[in-house]
Write a structure and sequence with these properties.
about 750 residues, alpha+beta, DHBP synthase, 12-stranded mixed β-sheet, binds zinc ion, binds fe (iii) ion
C-alpha cells in the first residue's frame, strides 16, 4: 500500500548535516519525495510503501545527526504527488540560511574506527565526517563551504573528493573532509627542533609529559597546556608560568572508567561528560589526585578526549589522565595563532605541539556543572556556540553588549538569540580586542545589521562604552533585571514573576551596588521588592579580592567600630596595620560605596570562618565555603526581614559558635540554609503581596550547588513553580541574553525611550 505524508521537524535541525541524513534514510527505505529547510525547521514530503514510511518516521529520532536536537516531529497526510526520486531542495530564503552555523563536534566512533582501519587514514589525526569534527572554529563566512573555511588551503585528494560528492557516504559534504594524503598535519616544536611524523609527535609528547615536562598542544578552539596530573612540582611550575596562583586546572581523563576511579559521577554527569559536546564537567573528588590542581575545593573540572589526537595520545601514554588547561597567560584570551603560541607558550613549556590548519574562531572549553540533576552551563563556548536559543519574541536587529567581567554578547535574528562564545574579562586589552573582532565576525557571518543596541546601566563597563559608540538607539538595562530576564528567556516566560538575583556586583538605579535582589518583574520592567542590607564596601571593587576587608565592614556595621578589638582572633593572619587602614577608610567613609551584594556576603562568611581571607581568583571565597559546607545539616541561623534583609543575628550566632568551637563545616552548612530560608520567606511575602507563584532564580551565586539545590527544593515544597538556568550561564555570561529579551519586549510594546 502506498502512502503520502508531510513531516515537519523542529529543533536544532539546520547546519548539522540534517538534510543529507534524511536523504540517506529515504534512499535506505526506498522512498521518494523532498526535504527542505524553512523558517521553522525542516519539511519532508515522503511517499512510498506504507510500512517503509512508518519505519522512516520511527528512524527519525535515532538516525539523524548527533548534533541535531529534535524538539518536535509533526506528521500529517498530504495529497499524493508521484515523486520520481528523493531530492534535497535548496533553501530559497537567505535570512534562514544564515543561522546555519554548527558548533564543533567531538570525533565520532566511526571516525575513530577509520583511524585504525582505513588505509589513507591510519593514525590520521584530522579524520572527520558529517557527524563530527570542527565547524564554527574553522568557518570564515557563509555559505558553509570548504573555500570559506580554514580548510581552503588543503585541496581534496581524489579519494576524499569521491566521499565528499557521494550522498550515500558518511562524508558527503563534510567540509573539513581530509586524509593523510591531502589534509593538515601535526608537528612538534621542541626548542628549535621541529618534527612532523605523527608517530614521533605522539611519542615525544608522551615522554615529555611522563617526565614531568609541560607541553603546549593545539586543540580545536585554541591551545592547551598539558602536563602530568600527579606531579605537583610540574603543576606548580605551570601555575607560576601561567601567572595563575590558585585557580583550578581542568583534567582530561582517558575514558569514563578511569575518571570514575577518582570522581563521583552520577548518571546525568556521565551523560554530559560523554556527550558529543565534551565539555569540562565539575565533579566531586572521590580520591585525591594532586594537592595542586584544585586547591581548597572538593571538586575538579574533568573532560574526556574529543579530538583524534587526544585519543591517540592516551593510547600511548602510561597514565590515564593529564592536566589540560587553556594555553594563555593570566586572563588573556586562549592563544590560537601558531606563531604566537611558539613565541609565548614555547617560553613556558618544554615543547609546542601544533598543526598547520588555522583556528579562525577562538573557543575555550565549555564548562558544565550538574546541580539537582540538571546540567547547568557555567561557560558556554566550544561545541555550544553559536547554536541559537529559541525565544518567544522577535529580536531581529538587536545587539546586546553583555557584561564586563564574564562577557558574552548576543545578536538577535528573527525569534532567535545568537550568543557569542565566552569572551572573558574585557578589562584585559587582548580580550577587548577579541570582543570587538568577534562582534564584527558575527555581524558578517550572520548577516546582522544592528538597529537597536543594549547596554548595562553601568556606564564604565567597557561593553557599555562599545555600545555607546554604535550610533544607533540604545536601551539601558539594570544588571539584575537582565539576569532574571535571561532565565525567563531561556524558559520562554513572558509574564510577571518573582525574580531573585544573587551575584557579586551590578549597578542599581539608586546608584548603589546591588547583588542580593528580590524583584517582582516581567521582561519589560521590574519593581525592587526587597534586598540584602546595604553595607559599605571599603575601597570599592577591589574588595572582592580581599574578603576579610568586607568582613571588617560587616562587623563594624553590625557591632560598632569599638567591637573590632574583640574580634582580633578572627584576623590572626592579617597585618594589624592593614586592619587599621581599612577601619579608618570605613570610618571616614572614603571610597565606600554601599552594596547589597550576595557575593560580598558569602565572601565575608568565608573569611569569618577562616576559610579564605584573600582570593586569588574570581569567587574563590564562596567556592571554598561551599566546598567546606556540610549540606546534610538542617539547622539555620536567624535573620530579619523588614524593609531590607539583615544578617546581624546571623553574624552574632556564627561568632558565638566559633567561640564554642563548633565545626566549620556545620557552620558553613547552616549559613547556606539561612540564605535558603531567606529566599523562601521573601518569596512567600512577595507572593502574598502580589499573587505571583512563579519564582525565577539567576545570578552567579546560583552556581553554588547547595544554595541552588536547596532553594529549588524548598520553594517547590512551598508551592512555587521554580525556574532556573541550564542552557545559559546564570553568571554574567548570561547577561546578554537577558538584555536582548528586555529590549525586544520594550520594542514590541513601543516603549523604547
Ligand atoms: Zn566522524
Ligand atoms: Zn584525502
Ligand atoms: Fe551579575
Amino acid at each position: 500500500m502506498i502512502t503520502s505524508k508531510q513531516i515537519i521537524i523542529k529543533g536544532l535541525v539546520q547546519g548539522v548535516g540534517f538534510r543529507p541524513s534524511i536523504y540517506r534514510m529515504a534512499i535506505l527505505h526506498k522512498l521518494n519525495g523532498t526535504v527542505e529547510n524553512n523558517n521553522t525547521g525542516v519539511i519532508i514530503n515522503i511517499e512510498g510503501d506504507k510500512k517503509s514510511v512508518e519505519n522512516f518516521i520511527n528512524d527519525l529520532p535515532i538516525r539523524t545527526p548527533i548534533a541535531s536536537n529534535i524538539t518536535s516531529i509533526v506528521v500529517t497526510d498530504k495529497p499524493y504527488s508521484d515523486y520520481s526520486n528523493f531530492e534535497i531542495i535548496k533553501s530559497s530564503s537567505q535570512s534562514n540560511e544564515v543561522t546555519e552555523v554548527s558548533p564543533d563536534i567531538g570525533v565520532c566512533n566511526e571516525c575513530l574506527e577509520d583511524i585504525k582501519t582505513q588505509v589513507n587514514r591510519i593514525d590520521y589525526a584530522f579524520t572527520n565526517c558529517t557527524n563530527c569534527g570542527p565547524r564554527f572554529t574553522i568557518i570564515k563566512d557563509l555559505p558553509y563551504d570548504r573555500p570559506l573555511t580554514t580548510m581552503s588551503v588543503f585541496p581534496m585528494c581524489d579519494s576524499c573528493k569521491n566521499e565528499y560528492i557521494d550522498i550515500l557516504d558518511r562524508r558527503f559534504h563534510a567540509q573539513p573532509v581530509a586524509c593523510d594524503n591531502c589534509g593538515p598535519q601535526y608537528s612538534i616544536d621542541t626548542k628549535g627542533e621541529c618534527l612532523t611524523d605523527i608517530k614521533t609527535v605522539i611519542e615525544r609528547t608522551c615522554s615529555l609529559i611522563e617526565n614531568g615536562k609541560i607541553v603546549a598542544i593545539k586543540g580545536l578552539g585554541g591551545y592547551h597546556l598539558g602536563c602530568s596530573t600527579f606531579n605537583d612540582k610540574t603543576i606548580n611550575r605551570l601555575r607560576i608560568a601561567k601567572n595563575r596562583e590558585g585557580k583550578p586546572f581542568a583534567i582530561m581523563f582517558k575514558d569514563i572508567s578511569s575518571a570514575k576511579e577518582y570522581l563521583h559521577i552520577n548518571e546525568e554527569e556521565e551523560q554530559v561528560l560523554s556527550s558529543w559536546r565534551k565539555p569540562i564537567v565539575l565533579l566531586k573528588l572521590k580520591k585525591k589526585i594532586s594537592n595542586s590542581i584544585s586547591i581548597g575545593l572538593d571538586s575538579v573540572g574533568v573532560m574526556l578526549p574529543y579530538m583524534p589526537f587526544h585519543y591517540m595520545l592516551f593510547d600511548s601514554l602510561s597514565v590515564n589522565s593529564i592536566v589540560l588547561t587553556s594555553g594563555n597567560i593570566s586572563d588573556e584570551p586562549v592563544l590560537i595563532s601558531n606563531t604566537e603560541a611558539i613565541e609565548k607558550l614555547g617560553e613556558i613549556s618544554d615543547a609546542v605541539v601544533t598543526y598547520n590548519r588555522e583556528i579562525y574562531n577562538r573557543t575555550d572549553d565549555s564548562v558544565v556543572k550538574v546541580i539537582n540533576n540538571v546540567a547547568r552551563t557555567i561557560r558556554r563556548s566550544r561545541s555550544y556556540a553559536p547554536s541559537p536559543i529559541e525565544l518567544s519574541i522577535n529580536t531581529e536587529g538587536i545587539f546586546a553588549g553583555g557584561a564586563e567581567l564574564v562577557n558574552c554578547f548576543a545578536i538577535g535574528k528573527g525569534n532567535q538569540a545568537i550568543l557569542s562564545q565566552h569572551i572573558g574579562d574585557l578589562k584585559n586589552l587582548e580580550t577587548l580586542e577579541f570582543y570587538e573582532e568577534s562582534i564584527e565576525r558575527f555581524s558578517k557571518l550572520f548577516r546582522f545589521k544592528p538597529e537597536l543596541a543594549v547596554m548595562d546601566m553601568h556606564p564604565d563597563y567597557l561593553s557599555s562604552r562599545f555600545v555607546e559608540k554604535l550610533d544607533i538607539p540604545i536601551v539601558k538595562v539594570q544588571h539584575h533585571h537582565a539576569h532574571i530576564a535571561s532565565c525567563m528567556a531561556e524558559h520562554k516566560l513572558d509574564e510577571k514573576v518573582i525574580g531573585i538575583s544573587f551575584d557579586g556586583t551590578g549597578l542599581g538605579d539608586d546608584g548603589n551596588i546591588w547583588g542580593g535582589e528580590f524583584f517582582a518583574c516581567d521582561l519589560e520592567n521590574y519593581e525592587r521588592i526587597n534586598h540584602f542590607e546595604y553595607i559599605p564596601q571599603p575601597g570599592g571593587d577591589g574588595v572582592s579580592k580581599h574578603p576579610w576587608r568586607m568582613l571588617i565592614s560587616y562587623l563594624i556595621h553590625y557591632f560598632g567600630i569599638e567591637s573590632i578589638s574583640n574580634y582580633e582572633f578572627l584576623f590572626n593572619d592579617i597585618n594589624p596595620n592593614e586592619i587599621s587602614t581599612i577601619k579608618s577608610i570605613i570610618e571616614s567613609n572614603l571610597n565606600c560605596p554601599l552594596t547589597s551584594s550576595a557575593g560580598r556576603l558569602f565572601d565575608s562568611i568565608s573569611s569569618l570562618l577562616g576559610i579564605c581571607h584573600n582570593a586569588t581568583y574570581h569567587a574563590e571565597a564562596p567556592m571554598q565555603l561551599e566546598s567546606m559546607a556540610n549540606e546534610n545539616i538542617d539547622e539555620k541561623y536567624s535573620f530579619s526581614i523588614s524593609h531590607d534583609i539583615s544578617f546581624k543575628s546571623t553574624f552574632a550566632e556564627i561568632i558565638d559558635e566559633l567561640k564554642s568551637n563548633i565545626c566549620i563545616a556545620d557552620i558553613a552548612g547552616k549559613f547556606h540554609n539561612t540564605v535558603v530560608s531567606i529566599i523562601v520567606e521573601t518569596a512567600i511575602i512577595t507572593s502574598n503581596k502580589t499573587g505571583l507563584k512563579k519564582v525565577v532564580l539567576s545570578g552567579g551565586s546560583f552556581q553554588n550547588s547547595i544554595l541552588l539545590k536547596k532553594a529549588e527544593q524548598q520553594l517547590a515544597l512551598n508551592g512555587f513553580e521554580v525556574f532556573t538556568q541550564s542552557q545559559i550561564p546564570s553568571n554574567d555570561g548570561g547577561i546578554a541574553l537577558g538584555q536582548l529579551a528586555i529590549a525586544a519586549k520594550r520594542r514590541e510594546l513601543n516603549r523604547i525611550i
